[in-house]
Fold:
Amino acid sequence: MPTPADTRLLLKQLFQQEFSKIVAVISSRYGLAHVEIAEDLVSDTFLTATEHWSTHGLPPHPTAWLYTVAKQKTLAYFRREKIYTHKVAPALTATAESATTSPEIDFSPQYIRDSQLKMLFAVCTPLIAGEAQIALALRVLCGFGIDEIASAFLTNKETINKRLVRAKAKLRAEGVRMELPSEAEVADRLDRVLHIIYLLFNEGYYSRTQDEVIRRELCWEAMRLAVFLTEHELTNRPETQALLALMCFHASRFDARQTADGGIVLYGQQDENKWDTDLIAQGIHYLERSASGNVVSPYHLEARIAQLHCLPGDGPDKWESILQLHNHLLVLQYSPAAALNRTYALYRARGATEALPEARKLRLETNHFYWVLLAELLQHTDLPDAITCLKRALEHARTTPEQQLIRERIRQLAKRED
Structure:
């Protein structure tokens, strides 16, 4: 007999797994304009489950129970409000049948998958700003609560609610439909979809919250969406495989990147025995599959860099290879973060003397990583200046683990200075 704690845990897991699926199915059947109604209906379904299961115990098939109750609530709502007859069916205008027959809600695995894929492309419309896209993706594709999204963005619930309201209003105003783009349009739209997944993973891999180095649930959701894309013929492309490879390589070092109390472990100090060899093997598998096309995307280059980071040892030859890949990446797609990473690779491959002038050229004064890198390059030639750089880094570090790491480094250098 499950305990109340077991029931709560199961409900939390089912919410994360099924919320987005049910929302996608309802929105696919009734139109994206009603996505907020779909969210409310699904939330109400889980509230009903909480009340019913606490009193009567778990049903034999909890997921099927949720689908049945969600279907009942959805049909009752749309019939009661007469929305289907007067608004939904005429708007669909697909066939005469859609306007005359009673609506059915299909929770078959194939329809769920198709609905989620359509929702993914709808959410990633270029009509919605980047941060709002991620917030909307976390909400309707990953089932995250408003509190969790606010935490991920290091902001408050009111701000997230405003972003979501504006994003959904834009979807309605622009008449964005839940449909797959044509095969000719997939390449352009897929690029944006992959970018959102990439940003979602990065938000988890380098968390901006105050108390966590890694938000693993964000990373797993990003990887789930990428796997999902590899299972559809229109979206199973080399760049999709490359992005999934990149995430596998990064995820393989999760356990090595954190101390037992949640602190940061720098790459050079990581215990290689804690690297997940199964995930590394998966990354190699996806990277090999990504080589089937003629295009080299930034994801291909980043995945190869991440693979080299997963190789044992730390010699200059390894870093020279990483440096050359960073050079190629900057030509393909410049970004300040990529330039900073390239400078660090230059340092590891050829030394501080060659890297320091390149680092100074970046002038990323508001980026604490920039000041940390300068401190690293200066520590053997100008210790006071290195400490000053770390103090500048401390001014811009946003999370507690970052600040703790920088303070410890200042303490170490100050001890050497004495």
Q: What stands out?
A: Residues 94-102 have pLDDT under 50 and may be disordered.
